[in-house]
Design goal:
- By secondary structure, this protein is an all-alpha fold.
- It has one domain.
- The chain is built from five helices and no strands.
- Helix 3 crosses helix 5.
- The longest helix is centred in the middle third of the chain and has 25 residues.
- The protein is globular.
- It starts with a helix and ends with a helix.
């Protein structure tokens, strides 16, 4: 399954989730929806970088998981240039490598 198919599935699932939340939670829905929209926009940027060949699959997965953790990172990621986004992802990869080495020691 390629990234385009995954993106379509995720978009469909997020639409269903948003509809469910709206019917169940009223005012909290706006906050939840905003977080999902910001995350979706940031992941879209990462998908675009992947399709352009600027990042590989592992870097894309790392970006998606890192962005999921912090809404403010999503906002910043969407505002950065491609070069800064790639540098951000590279820095996350280095941090992940340091954590892995430290846990093995």
């Amino acid at each position: 399954m390629d990234v385009t198919e995954i993106a379509k599935i995720v978009t469909h699932q997020m639409d269903k989730l948003i509809t469910t939340i709206k019917s169940l939670q009223g005012i909290k829905t706006v906050t939840m929806q905003a977080e999902h929209v910001l995350y979706g926009e940031a992941v879209y940027e990462a998908v675009r970088l992947y399709h352009q060949g600027d990042i590989d699959w592992e870097e894309f997965c790392l970006a998606a998981s890192s962005l999921k953790e912090d809404t403010w990172d999503c906002v910043a990621f969407c505002q950065m240039s491609d070069e800064l986004c790639i540098a951000w992802i590279t820095e996350r990869a280095k941090e992940g490598g340091r954590r892995t080495r430290n846990t093995k020691a």
